[in-house]
Amino acid sequence: MTDPLPKESAEVTSGNDGVPLNLTEEEATRYDRQMRLWGIEAQQRMRNATILVIRLKGVATEAIKNMVLAGIGKLIVIDGENVSEEDLGAGFFFRDEDVGLKRLDAAKSRIESLNPLVAVETITDASVMKSEQLESIIKLVDLVCVTDGNKNELIAINDICRKYEKPFYSGGTYGLYGYIFCDLLSHEYLAPDRSAPKDQPKSVKTTAVYPPLISALQHQWSALTKRQTKEVNPALYFAIIALWHSQATHKSLPDDISQADELEQLANSYLAGAYVNKQALTAVPRDLIESLATTASHEFSPVCAIVGGMLGQDILKALGGREPPIANFFVFDGNTGGGTVCRLNMP
């Protein structure tokens, strides 16, 4: 039987104001199992983290569940929308009787019930997103996660995070498809030392340098071989980038096949401009475009669960510093149940 972890408090420093925070006996007991997995230092970093999540839909619901259960210090959520009937399918914090109420008013007590040790703050004033107040909030948190945002919003918030050196995540789903992007600035984590003997494994501190979203989207694919390109399979990435362009133009996501031709033209234009190996991919498949065009405006619970679960777990990885996070754009295909990571403009 494994010896229990020490009960005494371990003093660490908050990333916000330098005030020492302790891992209490109650927390050590609650998080005992996971501390055995990723260590007490990683748990302390999570305990001292304040996370800002913007928008509470299906992906955010799953990500929040993972982060709150893991024991982050504080969660701040911004969402000014009301619960709709469509929200009930992928948002397990909502009930039938919540339709018409503010999403956060309906969800707050249910989020808190997951882990009473985590402080939960909700902001239902949508005007915060368009004011200097958002910047003042970002200054005080340790990490920002934007879900189901449009391209211009993501770039703007990523720029604010860069200004104050705050790690940035975004994620969302488009029907059967989804993505996660992260900009972790200069991020340190532990990686296996490949030079160490197999019978004496050890880890070394590694640094990964991440670009902001606006730079990542300018990535050129010409350096990849045919085999490497096929492994990454960037067709879905270009389809999602085309979808972002279409969303900016029409102020909404497509909901039927009538916009498939436009999406196909945009996706193939981005594909050609990125110098992807033509032996591996000459055009974005038409069936992918049609599927995206007809499902993009809908949420499917299984897809939200997978993408949101991965988003929450990757945020915990980044906070813990024990494993390499996503580098740096993940796409998920619900038709195949598989996903790939596209390394965009990273050294």
From TrEMBL:
Where does the protein end up? Nucleus
Which pathway? Protein modification; protein sumoylation
For this record, the Gene Ontology CC terms, alphabetical, are: cytoplasm; SUMO activating enzyme complex
Single GO BP term: protein sumoylation
Q: Where is the composition biased (Basic and acidic residues)?
A: 1-10
Region described as Disordered: 1-25
Q: Where is the THIF-type NAD/FAD binding fold domain?
A: 31-341
- In the record, what terms sit under GO molecular function? SUMO activating enzyme activity
Main location per UniProt? nucleus
Listed A to Z, the keywords are: Nucleus, Ubl conjugation pathway
Q: Any keyword Glycosyltransferase?
A: no
In the record, the note on similarity to other proteins reads: Belongs to the ubiquitin-activating E1 family.
Question: What name does the UniProt record give this protein?
Answer: Ubiquitin-like 1-activating enzyme E1A
